[in-house]
Amino acid sequence: MENPYPQPDRPGGLYQPPPFRPPQEPGGRGRSSRKKVVAGICALTALAVTAAATGVALGVRENRAREAAVPPASAADPTKPQVAGWKTVVNPKHGTAFDVPPQWEVLEPTVFSGHTDSKDREKVLIGHTAPAFYKSKWCSIDADGDGQVSDVRLANVGTKGAAGAKNAAEIAEKEAPTWVYAAYTQPDKSAVKTDKPVAYTTRSGVSGSYVKARSTGVPRTNHCAGDGQAVVFGFKNSRGDLVSWDFYGRTGVPGAVDDALIMRVLSTVRLAGDPKEP
């Protein structure tokens, strides 16, 4: 398996997983087929790959019928929230859980949400599963003029695997700037600024490291474009596999998720049994 972590001589040092080829329905071609249900996973799995355009990754045209919010008491979400009134997000594949405020949308664990390369829509730069969205229709735009409107989320959070990483700090260092680049600054890597790793332990005792990254000066090429930030927390699950919790969202706009809330959500990250396919 190809090592998804770049060598030191790769420009920007951004996380670059192997090329991803979204499956197509029989006979499907073009952009529309890449936004359909992921074949071979389950009939209710939505492929949530975001198309990047004009310097900002715009909201994916997801199959909204398959993205109903998952209530905390459902079979897919057996754990109770650590914060009263919040929702719990469980990712069985990685054996992880965390909580989000009640206004957030919790999607099925099999939903994949990510961002593609603005120059190659078949290439996924980064993504995670079992996501939760905040204000999923915060901004809408028809980026390429094809008549299909994309919804831009104000914030997004989820978890992903990190096979090939050496330690938790490396995960955070590589992935945090990649989320910012993929979601907000393409094709400009110089607009991304990254802090150093910080050792951190969640309320449940999960230890690891987190890194904050942000963009500055992203051109307002359209009414949805602008700066954003990411916080990535690397840690190990019960099997000893390195995984990451990933938050990213817009900054400098009304209603943006502030640092205090991001850290409160991060504090609820916990293990949720042994990893298994959902």
UniProtKB/TrEMBL annotation:
<dbReference type="Pfam" id="PF26056">
    <property type="entry name" value="DUF8017"/>
</dbReference>
<keyword id="KW-0472">Membrane</keyword>
<keyword id="KW-0812">Transmembrane</keyword>
<dbReference type="InterPro" id="IPR058330">
    <property type="entry name" value="DUF8017"/>
</dbReference>
<keyword id="KW-1133">Transmembrane helix</keyword>
<protein>
    <recommendedName>
        <fullName>DUF8017 domain-containing protein</fullName>
    </recommendedName>
</protein>
<feature type="transmembrane region" description="Helical">
    <location>
        <begin position="37"/>
        <end position="60"/>
    </location>
</feature>
<feature type="compositionally biased region" description="Pro residues">
    <location>
        <begin position="16"/>
        <end position="25"/>
    </location>
</feature>
<feature type="region of interest" description="Disordered">
    <location>
        <begin position="1"/>
        <end position="35"/>
    </location>
</feature>
<feature type="domain" description="DUF8017">
    <location>
        <begin position="79"/>
        <end position="273"/>
    </location>
</feature>
